[in-house]
Design a protein that fits this description.
The complex is a heterodimer of chains A (about 160) and B (about 130).
Chain A lengths: L1 H15 L2 H17 L8 H19 L8 H4 L9 H20 L2 H12 L6 H6 L3 H20 L3
Helix pairs in contact in A: 1-2, 1-3, 2-3, 5-8, 6-8
Chain B lengths: L2 H9 L5 H9 L1 H21 L18 H27 L6 E7 L6 E7 H4 L4
Antiparallel strand pairs in B: 1-2
Helix pairs in contact in B: 1-2, 1-3, 2-3
The chains are: A mainly alpha (about 160), B mainly alpha (about 130).
């Protein structure tokens, strides 16, 4: 359960860009899980991801205008990289990626978070997002290009 | 192949011989390819991070359960009855009330019902 909780929290954090909002969203996801536990069919992990994306989108809509990502939260994790320059570069890249994620559309962000951060297979993402695979592939490509251009312009 | 086609294929992780040939002659696309690869690595690192879970439990935000509502009602009712009886009893005798607190467990581990009783009225049952 702890692993699922982390997965949900992590996904919500990348979608919302704010740890407190992500914690709220994660709580809502697990509340729905407990309420619907006996009605969940198929892969429970896919269900959790789907509800996490939906709940995060609901949070985003309630929270207009959108807040900026919190860069301080993006740099809190240890880095196994060897040199200090490498560490700094990677942390700066993570910080910029958090900013860039916040500038994507909701669907692009969800697609790239599920595929590139959560590491789901490209065929799993459309099932979770309830869209065609070709659409998700396009959203992932566009999102990757946007992220790359955003980071490149600032590093 | 133009830069736009190359960019799209790079974003799809499709490094075909055409893409490789284009990258050899286009510094812009080569830099973009390096950026996409570095981003992929950084995004993967996000996967291993441990975020702080909220201090409160999931159940803490729930609406009070029926057991909790029943417990609250029982406590209020008990307090009213106890107060009324004590007042009534006090008029007839001068014996001070001896409060007996009864703890009742419920199927919900978060809910415990306390029942306040005047032990003087219970007589030998005590």
């Amino acid at each position: 359960m702890a692993a699922h909780r982390q997965r949900v929290l992590r996904t919500a954090y990348r979608l919302l860009g704010d740890l407190t909002d992500a914690q709220d969203a994660a709580q809502e996801v697990f509340l729905r899980l407990f309420k619907q536990l006996d009605r969940i069919e198929g892969d429970p992990q896919a269900w959790l991801y789907r509800v996490t994306v939906n709940v995060s989108h609901d949070h985003l809509r309630r929270r207009r205008p959108a807040r900026e990502a919190t860069p301080e939260a993006a740099g809190d994790w240890p880095d196994p990289a060897p040199g200090p320059f490498r560490i700094l570069e990677l942390e700066e890249r993570k910080r910029l990626l958090m900013e860039a994620l916040a500038k994507l559309t909701e669907r692009e962000r969800a697609a790239v978070v599920l595929r590139d951060i959560e590491g789901l297979a490209t065929r799993e993402v459309p099932q979770i997002m309830d869209v065609e695979e070709v659409t998700v592939r396009s959203q992932i490509s566009i999102a990757r290009l946007k992220l790359a251009k955003y980071v490149r312009a600032r590093m | 192949m133009n830069c736009e086609e190359c960019e799209l294929l790079l974003a799809q992780e499709k490094v075909t011989p055409d893409v490789e040939a284009h990258l050899e002659q286009c510094a812009e696309c080569w830099a973009l390819a390096a950026e996409i690869a570095a981003n992929a690595e950084a995004l993967c690192e996000f996967r291993d991070e441990a975020l702080a879970t909220p201090p409160q439990t999931v159940g803490a935000r729930r609406r009070p359960s029926r057991w909790a509502m029943a417990a609250a009602a029982a406590v209020v009712l008990g307090a009213i009855l106890f107060g009324w009886r004590t007042a009534d009893h006090g008029k007839q005798t001068a014996v001070p009330p001896a409060i007996l607190k009864i703890k009742m467990l419920t199927p919900d581990p978060d809910v415990v019902i306390y029942w306040l009783v005047d032990a003087n009225e219970r007589g030998t049952e005590r």
